[in-house]
Amino acid sequence: MTTEPCNCRERIDAGLAQHNTRVKSYFTLSANSVGMPWPIETVQVDKGRGKPKASALFASFCPFCGVSLRKPEGADA
């Protein structure tokens, strides 16, 4: 298992730059950390008044290289 940080987002953004495009970024906050996970698009199935909205879903591992996007317990933020 590698301890190298994931730099897939930067590499993909560099490749998409020629198309005037980049990966959408989100920041997440928890009690003791800030993260920048990969978003997974979800859609609302049943629409209309009173129906629950689509939930946000974020990958905890990079979908391209498999590196964990979460810092290990006790790691400096």
Helix content: 10-25%
Number of helices: 1
| Helix-and-strand structural type | alpha+beta
**So what's the overall shape?**
extended
Q: What fraction of residues sit in β-strands?
A: 5-15%
| Distance between the ends | 21 Å
Integer-rounded radius of gyration: 16 Å
Unreliable sequence segments: none
The chain-level mean pLDDT equals 81
Order of helices and strands: HEEEE
Largest sheet: 2 strands, antiparallel
What number of structural domains do the residues give? 1
Q: How many beta strands in the DSSP annotation?
A: 4
- Kindly report the spatial arrangement of strands forming the biggest sheet: 1-2
Structural commentary:
It contains one helix and four strands, in the order H-E-E-E-E. The protein is α+β, with helices and mostly antiparallel strands and about 80 residues long. It has one domain (about 1-45, about 55-70). The strands form two sheets. Strands 1-2 form a two-stranded antiparallel sheet. It is extended and about 45 Å long.
Brief descriptors of the model:
77 residues, alpha+beta, two-stranded antiparallel sheet, 12% helix, 13% strand
SSE arrangement:
Blueprint: H1 8-16, E1 28-29, E2 34-35, E3 38-40, E4 57-59
Antiparallel strand pairs: 1-2, 3-4
Q: Care to give the gist of this entry?
A:
The protein has one domain. It has one helix and four strands.
